[in-house]
């Protein structure tokens, strides 16, 4: 066994090593446990914090927070686990299951709580996730934002015989060497004896999520039916150029309404894109394109026609986008707006639209100013092809073909955190 693994497996002694970091109690409402030294885990290592368990085992309410980054996709990866190593199924864990965030508590084989998101966090990016447990229920958080909630609750005191505490693995009598090992970096793990509110969780997150991204995640993770409106021009419309394959709204429909689980069948995805539309027309016809459908989420992809329309220069486009975002938020229930940039075009065929990059830039600026989720297809297409326009994704040099629509759908799926390489939508290969 390599010395590094021996240090990690050495229990409390590991806390003095570079990988062990330090765990300490903090007064004045601070964390009872705060392990703040990043540790790289290779799928067979862990950090043993069992000597800190006495302070945590009596907790009936509190917050567990972990900042991490995965380096592979494992079916199960433990972030934080407290368990009875002499029993087969007595533990409380915050972990990733197929990339989804999962919180569970079992006592003597009885499942006290087992909740899991549909949104996924094994994308190799840095995430800060948390579970808060109190009398009102259990909430899962990502980037400081609530992404799932339930009235059910169980915490450390509800599991008897806790004697092992670890980052990166779970331990029970059926798996004396451990199970659900993590592959990646755990930067920090902390536990409080109280429920942190959103402002506190945002402050604890090195990269806080937009509030709107949290709201979208909550919608995706909830079984309550939601209506999604995707509006825009011919690209959203999906007219002609898909050659009989699905458009990006149709791919999104399949991913949400089918692949994410049966209760989501009751979601509805409405494509109100109209060929030839501009931002000005969408402002003028907002009632019939958006309001009429009582949406929870509104995606807007627009701009490809603006650049070719008199009076719709970048600043007029900016004003229209701001108007659209505000109009979405002003609807009953304050739906979540999502801005999606136009894709780049072939400059050899469409020299008059080479300035489309400025429109994509303006949309990004509006999104930042309005704290709106922004999905940047323009940058994604260019960065994925060495700065060149990927002509294989275009039908006529401007409209995405069937490959281009799938590329747009994948970017949307990844940015809204429901990517799964095993899904038919995500793994589709267009010949």
Tell me the number of structural domains. Answer: 2
Rg is 24 Å
Count the DSSP helices.
12
In terms of per-residue confidence, which ranges show pLDDT below 50 for 5 or more consecutive residues? 1-28
CATH class of the largest domain: Mainly Beta
Percentage of β-strand residues: 25-35%
- Shape type: elongated
The CATH architecture name of the largest domain reads: Sandwich
CATH topology of the largest domain: Jelly Rolls
Note the main sheet. Answer: 7 strands, antiparallel
Q: Output mean pLDDT.
A: 93
Helix content: 10-25%
Query: How many β-strand stretches?
Result: 20
**SS-based structural class?**
alpha+beta
First CA to last CA: what distance?
47 Å
Explained architecture:
With 431 residues, the chain is of the alpha+beta class. It has two domains: 3-208, Jelly Rolls, CATH 2.60.120.200; 214-415, SGNH hydrolase (Rossmann fold, 3-Layer(aba) Sandwich). It has helices at residues 3-9, 53-56, 198-203, 211-221, 234-237, 248-259, 279-284, 286-289, 314-329, 356-369, 377-383, 402-415, and strands at 33-35, 39-42, 47-48, 62-70, 76-83, 91-97, 100-107, 110-120, 127-134, 137-142, 145-150, 164-167, 170-172, 175-179, 183-192, 227-232, 268-271, 297-301, 336-340, 373-375. The longest helix is centred in the C-terminal third of the chain and has 16 residues, at 314-329.
In short:
This protein is α+β, with helices and mostly antiparallel strands and 431 residues long. 24% of the residues lie in helices and 27% in strands. The two termini are 47 Å apart.
């Amino acid at each position: 066994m390599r010395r590094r693994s021996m240090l990690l497996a050495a229990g409390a002694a590991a806390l003095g090593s570079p990988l062990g970091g330090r765990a300490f109690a903090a007064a004045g409402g601070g964390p009872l446990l705060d392990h703040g030294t990043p540790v790289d885990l290779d799928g067979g290592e862990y950090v043993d914090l069992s000597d800190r368990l006495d302070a945590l085992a009596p907790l009936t309410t509190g917050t567990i927070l972990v900042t991490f980054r995965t380096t592979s996709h494992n079916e199960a990866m433990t972030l934080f686990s407290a368990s009875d190593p002499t029993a087969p199924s007595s533990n409380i864990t915050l972990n990733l299951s197929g990339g989804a965030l999962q919180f569970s508590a079992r006592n003597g084989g009885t499942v006290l709580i087992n909740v899991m998101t549909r949104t996924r966090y094994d994308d190799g990016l840095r995430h800060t996730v948390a579970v808060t447990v109190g009398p009102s229920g259990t909430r899962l958080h990502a980037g400081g934002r609530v992404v799932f909630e339930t009235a059910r609750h169980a915490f450390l005191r509800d599991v008897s015989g806790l004697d092992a505490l670890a980052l990166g693995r779970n331990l029970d009598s059926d798996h004396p060497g451990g199970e659900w090992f993590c592959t990646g970096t755990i930067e920090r793990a902390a536990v409080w004896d109280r429920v942190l509110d959103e402002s506190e969780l945002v402050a604890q997150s090195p990269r806080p999520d937009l509030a709107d991204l949290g709201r979208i995640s909550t919608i995706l993770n909830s079984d309550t039916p939601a209506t999604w409106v995707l509006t825009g021009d011919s690209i959203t419309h999906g007219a002609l150029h898909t050659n009989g394959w699905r458009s990006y709204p149709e791919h999104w429909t399949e991913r949400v309404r089918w692949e994410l689980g049966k209760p989501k069948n009751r979601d509805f995805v409405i494509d109100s894109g109209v060929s030839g539309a501009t931002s000005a027309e969408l402002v003028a016809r907002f009632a019939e394109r958006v309001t009429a459908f009582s949406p929870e989420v509104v995606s807007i992809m627009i701009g490809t026609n603006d650049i070719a329309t008199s009076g719709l220069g970048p600043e007029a486009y900016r004003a229209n986008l701001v108007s659209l975002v505000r109009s979405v938020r002003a609807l009953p229930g304050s739906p979540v707006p999502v801005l999606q940039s136009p894709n780049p075009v072939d400059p050899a065929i469409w020299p008059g639209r080479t300035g489309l990059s400025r429109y994509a830039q303006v949309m990004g600026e509006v999104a930042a100013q309005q704290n709106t989720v922004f999905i940047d297809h323009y940058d994604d297409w260019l960065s994925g092809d060495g700065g060149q326009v990927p002509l294989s994704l275009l039908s006529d040099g401007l409209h995405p073909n069937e490959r281009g629509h799938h590329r747009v759908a994948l970017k949307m799926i990844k940015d809204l955190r429901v990517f799964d390489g095993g899904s038919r939508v995500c793994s589709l290969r267009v010949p």
